[in-house]
Amino acid sequence: MVAAWGVLVGAVASVLAAAVLWGTVGPAQLWADSGVDPVALGACRMVLGGAVLSLLTVRPAGLRTLRLPGVGPWLVLSVLVTAAFQVCFLQAVERSGAALATAVAFGTVPVVGGLCAWLLSGERLTSRWWWGTGCALPGIALLLLPGSGARVDLPGVLLAVVAGAGFGVYIAASKQLGVRGADLGAAAPASVLCAGLLVSPYVLVAPEGLGSVRSVALIGWLGLVTTALGYLLFTRGVGRLSAATTGTLSLTEPLVATVLGVLVLGERPGAAAAGGAGLLLLGLVLVSLPERHAARTASGARPGDGRAGGEAGETTGGAGRAPGPGPGPKGARTVEAPPS
Fold first, then answer.
1. Alpha carbons 101 and 277: distance in angstroms, whole number
2. What pTM value is reported for the model?
């Protein structure tokens, strides 16, 4: 019993640490103030992080699954939306600040993810999804009101929405990859690396500032720590946790970005913007709550043994991490590679 709880605590700590690291992406970008174009920064982050992840996690057997029938189109889609997320999110942070950009992006994820699951797999839209969507839409509308805040502008908010939508589509694409037998432990790093290579020509268009010490340190943090280490920590712990627990822990990501944005960067959004961000975060909390019928379905599963997560996670409207085959020989872990 003690050993089981020790494993569970370790899993929670790993997922929590990953969420904290991801929450530093926007604040680190603004704090470094390196002058690097956000698109070039995203390309460098994806190439570095994707290359390191591929070297550490991808195995020949996993790569072979990416050539299975029906996998190719979904893999291409995952590459495209990964690139879109990185490019749009970093630009949104630059325009609207770390706290608001993160809240908008991740408040949009469950809305789009639920719609994609409904359209592609016929998964029902749960009450959690409806409540989360009911918070997200007016929350974004509040941010678009004139005078919402000094750093809030229409392009910045829309870029964050596109980033969140890209993440939601990525979740759906990852589910389809898993259904078709692809190893997500290989597909996720490949998606990040290929997305970086896809965007990398932009580095030649806007190379300004990339050689400075601040830029090199920022790219190292974003690529090696928030991408490579964050993914490794997440996948280490997520297979031992339920989907609801994982979703709740993932709420740490926008929370960290908000706290750092306010305390470190001095971001002070207006009342309407603060209310909008609050609604978006409330929506994330609501979609993280487990459905009653899912909890009954998973009755009898031991805490942390993964069975409850596999069953409860099938309902639409989770917190942005979808169930699917994970890396390693077990192959049935609940894992979602984070573009964040």
1. 9
2. 0.79
The residue written with tokens 């929590």 in the block is 16
Q: Is the distance from CB of 46 to CB of 196 less than 8 angstroms?
A: yes
Whether the pLDDT of residue 220 is over 50: the answer is: yes
Residues with Cβ within 8 Å of residue 25, at least 6 apart in sequence: 89, 93, 222, 226, 257, 340
Mean pLDDT of 185-203: 94
Q: In this structure, which amino acid lies at residue 258? A: T
- CA angle, 55 as apex, 222 and 53 as ends, to 5°? 30
Q: Give the pLDDT of residue 137.
A: 85
What phi and psi, each to the nearest 5 degrees, are found at residue 125? -85, 110
Nearest CA among 74, 76, 68 for reference residue 181: 68
**Three-state SS at 324:** strand
Cβ–Cβ under 8 Å, residues 233 and 71: no
Candidates 255, 289, 279; CA nearest to 102 is 255
* DSSP annotation string for 32-68: H-----HHHHHHHHHHHHHHHHHHHH--HHHHHHTTS
